[in-house]
Structures are given as C-alpha cells and as structure tokens.
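User: Batch of two.

Assistant: Item 1 of 2:
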Amino acid sequence: MVAALAVLTAVEAGYQAAVMAPTEILAEQHFMTFRQLLEPLGLRVSLLTSSLKPRARSAERAALAAGETHCAVGTHALVQEDVGFRRLGLAVVDEQHRFGVEQRARLKAKGEHLDLLVMTATPIPRTLALTLYGDLDVSVIDALPPGRRPVTTAARTEAKRRAIYTFLGEQAAAGRQAYVVYPLVEESEALDLKAATDMARRSRRARSSSWCPPRSSRSGSTCPTPRSCSSSTPSASASPSSISSGDASGAGRGSPTVFC
C-alpha cells in the first residue's frame, strides 16, 4: 500500500514509476495488486519479465518509452539496456537485499534525479550500513493493517508433534490453511537439520493414524478408530508436507481434506 501510494503520487506529478522484485512470482503478485489498486484511477500498469514473448516484450518496451505506461512492474528485466522510460521519477525495489548495488544503480540511471524507495523485511549488513552512513532515510511500519489480529507464537518440543498435527487437522477441518517450514529442502550430510522432503515422507506414512475430523464435519459418518477415518491423498504435484483445508467447505462433495 505504501508503494502504491508513492507510485500514485509520482504519476500525478507527471512521472512514471518502476517497481522491481527479485522473482517472477513476486513480480506477478505485485502486478496484480498494483493493477487492482491503480487501474480504476486511470493508470496503466504493465508487467515486464524475461518470460514474456518477444512481441509482447517489444510492445511493453515501446509503451514505456512513449510514456503510455504509468507504472512498470518487473524483475531484473527492468534494468536491461533495451528498456527505457520517457520520464521515470520513482523506482521501488522490493526485497532490496536480493539485488546488487550495480543493479539498483542501473535502475536509477534510467531516470533523472528520481526518488528511490527500497523495501525489505530482512535487513542485512549492507542495508544497515546504508542507513548508518546517511544514504537512506528509514521509515518503519510498526502498526498492523486494519482488522489484522495479533499473531500468537508458541514453542513446542518434538514430543508434542502428534498434538501439533492434531491442532493443524482441527484448523483444516474448520476451513483454515496451514503450512510447515523446515530449514532444508533435502537432507544434508554436513548439517544435522530436518529436511522438508524427509519429513514429508514421514508425515505421509503417519497419515493413516492421524487425527480424525469431528463427526460434524463428516456429514454424520462414524469413525470408530482413528485408523478407519479416511482422508484424501495429496496429488503428486502437491507438497506432501503441506496441511491444507483443500475443499474444506465440501461444496457438497463430502468431508474436508486433511493432508499431513
């Protein structure tokens, strides 16, 4: 929201804006958000990434150079030499620690005396150094968005793993979602840490004896033992370590999906 207001201010002053994100997925998310917020106000928002087809990429570059596009959202593609702006006045860099100094400099060079807004939730030594030596003015957002409830944090030991899965199953049955994060993707001989793939296999094997949804969420069916309670099996494309509500509402098709 802060970046969108900055873009709107720049455009109202007669300038263009560029929003750069480190990955295509994040750039696409920003593009959809900015388009939803700004296009109803008459601003044209475009997406520029390396995956665009040559014809579409050429059309977007031409619109930027002609000043027809007010805000360009993209990845590193924005700093390529063949990308030019008619009057760039604001550059927004999200997850700025993921970009190098030269990349940010190339984006700034596409405008004259433009304003630079960098955003990060992960301050690194370089960011702190820029702040310390006066190259950045810092704005801290320490208030929750309207309607956002406080986050409850709790620490549990390995002995509570079954209780954790029970809690997640209850939340999934209530129509909510959950995700499980591990420090590694694959097992490592150098690090004694849990890996997502290994824990996913364990969770899948344990699913047959996992938590059983309450009768109210199973359309009145009986469940004499936890092992006899059926649960959907995640597809090959789904992350086996995820615990998802799936079609929690049922949409008239039966019990909720519980993945463990």
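Item 2 of 2:
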Amino acid sequence: QGGAHQGGAHQGGPLRVAVLGHALTRMPSRTPPEARHDLLFVGSLAQDFTPNADALAWFAAEIMPRLDARIGTGWRLLVVGSCTARRLHALAGERLCLVGPAQDLAPWFELARGFIAPTRFAAGLPHKVHEAAARGVPAVVTGLLAGQLGWTDGRELLVADEAEAFAAHCARLYQDTALWWRLRQGALDRLARECDPQHFAATLRAVVEGSLSACDAAPDAGAQAAGAQPAGPQPVGPPLVGPVRAASRAGGAEPDGALAAPAPLAGAARPAPAGSDGAEPGAADPPAADAARPG
C-alpha cells in the first residue's frame, strides 16, 4: 500500500507485507479410523483461565455429555501437555485423561479418531490444528480458529461454536468413515500448499533480502528527500523507504510448551510410531495397540 503507514515510523513509502505461517512436513498416521476410539487435545494448560483451559472446561461440562448421548461412553478425551490448571485436575478421571507432557506425539495421534480445539478466545495461528492436519487426524474446531486458518467447514475440518453442534460434529467423525477420510485428505492437501518447508524458507529468504536492500537504499533516499547530497559513509539505520515487514501469523498464540515423556495410561497400550507415508482406506497397517479399546 502506498502513502504513510499509520502507526509506524516510516512515512511516504510503500509498505510490503509478507505472511509467514508454519513450516510443517506431513507425517500422516496410518491407523484406520475403525481402530481409533478416542479424541485428542494437545496444548499447555498453565492456568485456569487461559484459552486452552477454558476450552477444555467448556468441552467437559457442555460438550462431553451431549457426545455421550450420541455415541455412548466407549471413548476418552486424551489431553497431552503440561497441566497446572487446578480446575482441570478437578475434572480429570477415567474418561478425561490428563496424560501430561509427551516427547513424541505420534503414538497419541495414532489413537485419536478426532482432534478437538474448542477454543473460544485466542490470537494468532493455531499451530495445534496444523499439526493435527499434518498427522492426518480430522479436527473439530470453533469458528474462531477456522477463521484464523482460513479453512472451510466440511472441506478441511468441521466447525461449530455451540455445544450441541460441536458434539454432533465429533459424533460424525465416529459415524461417517467417508467423511473422516475426506477431511483428512482435504487438510493434508491444504497443509501442503500453506506450510511446505521449502516455500516457508523461500518466503523468509525474500523477506530478509528485501529488508537488507531497503536498509541499504534508505540513507541516500532520505538525504535526497531533504534536498542534500549524501557525503561519506552513511550509517545503517532503520529503513525509511520500501520497508519489508514479516508478519508472523503465529504471534500471540498460546504456547503448547516443550513436552516430555508421560507415564502410560492405565489400561491403554501405546501403538508404535507410524511411518511417514499416508495410507489409503483399507491399506493401513494398524499397530498392535490399536485393538485396545478404552475400559
């Protein structure tokens, strides 16, 4: 955009904006949907009223009973990530399992029939949804997160903002296998376009090189604008003309935190980490633990 940049230090020059998202390699899990029985949430739960803690408390109180009414109680919600939020420890039990930190998320994605992100307030780009897509697990999210991603309900994921609709979408992941595969492939395809590591590196390189070029051109341009001829070496300062600004859409997102290995869940075996190749329906080799249903 031309003209003055409102709120910035640069006046009179064009503002170039480059958007950097996430760089992710697709590593879809291989377990077929019929052998998956649980829902998964991944994220840091540091305090009671953070976005993640609020989302899980809402899911437990409002969505979980409605989902039970639709598909029964033969499923669990697996919550992976550090948790010091007291309100969630009060909700934990056999069906809402606080797994704790995990060094490797692959086994948990192998168990998951679906990924949930019932986030009601947050900023930035939801990395957790991108990661679920990279692992080939369909997600049910709120409209807030779908809008941040720019993804479409029914194409790459399922979207709902009310408890009844959210529960209905979770149930569809259990009841409609064709939908499960379609959402999985749609998210994998979208991720390939938006989060390809080579594309990310090329964008970042262009941003850095453009910024350096702008810095080099700025002193002479500033001197000419003042009606003076530049004399001698000029100090390199902030760009005055043609700045290139990298806007990371991940800024402001709630950190998921570094994860370390958890203790095994009672009665739940872990599948071996899957290979990196996607599997077509009927072609998957489920790990041995996939046959274990929750007690």
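Residues 197-225 form the longest helix (29 residues).
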